[in-house]
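Memo to structure team: turn this sequence into structure tokens by end of day. - J.P.
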Amino acid sequence: MKHLIRVLAMLCAMALGFCVLAEESATVTVRGIGENVTVTLVMEDGKIVSVEATSDNTEADERGVESLKLIADAMIEKNSVIVDAVSGATGTSNAVIAAATEAWLQIQAEAASGEGWMEEAPAGDALYQVALLQSLVQGYYDGIVTVGELKLHGDTGIGTFEGVNGEMIVLDGTVYQAVADGSIAVPSEEETVPFSNVTFFDVDETLALGGIADMAALQAAMNGVVNELGANCFYMVKIEGTFDSIKVRSEYKQEKPYRALDVALAEDQTEFDYEDVRGTVVGLYCPDYMGGLNTPGWHFHFINEDRTRGGHVLQISVREAEAAFDMTDGFEMALSREAAFQDMELARDVNEAIHRAETATVEADPAQ
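Reply from structure team:
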């Protein structure tokens, strides 16, 4: 089982800010690549006022020492522990970010017992995310949690499986796998997951839908509810009803060495068109500020009524359906400590690759 770094933050209420009211500090050491990196983080009145990063690598050159200072200074300037890695020192940069993040969490936890701390979100009212869409898009397909563990964090959601082996639809506590031929399987509890978002679903709002012509119209209808309730929270939605048409995709399992997701999908994506079909669309909305951890806006997966066909939604026309919204103001993330993950440049701009992976279609195979 891989070691996990878990991040729990009240992103909606905090708006990615800090809630520490007095000066607090924490020191954390993490293992980097051939070195131990120690970070002492000091916060005062909600701001990062000092970051001291050191390495026990006695052979570190001048560039390595300078990179520690550059990333520490960037955290103070941005008032955030999530900053870009220093070119040429990715391993050290990621170690500093990991240590600073853990120190930040320790400070928040300490402050949580004092006056002025925000009210904790209700139990279960959090979005649980496995890794980053950015890591998946760059080709990190190794499983981080098992299906069994994922189900402890939510009964509704979307994602994929180790090796990007099809599309995940989590509905009413069951994890479904839409494999490359478009059919549905139920994976074992031991199957592993490289990326997913799940939550325990409760209905906060509903919306009747009808005559929705395409994906753009569906997103506009969904955004109307989001903008009314609050666009800086997360939303999981279940859309149950009849669809005039729906285009979905899945993909064949990838083998190492892994290619970037958009490249893999260009060769191994399969697409299926269904008409006059009943079923459920499970959708996730992420706020704009999640651009570095997921993709802002909507992401939809579909499963039909008899649980035999499904996939990632590329296009859709809704005849008549009801959308149920779960407004979620908590966020929890599981990350891998494996070197292959820690060495990734996760702050790199991969928006174009994400767009291609999420929306691109391929020419139909006449043999299908």
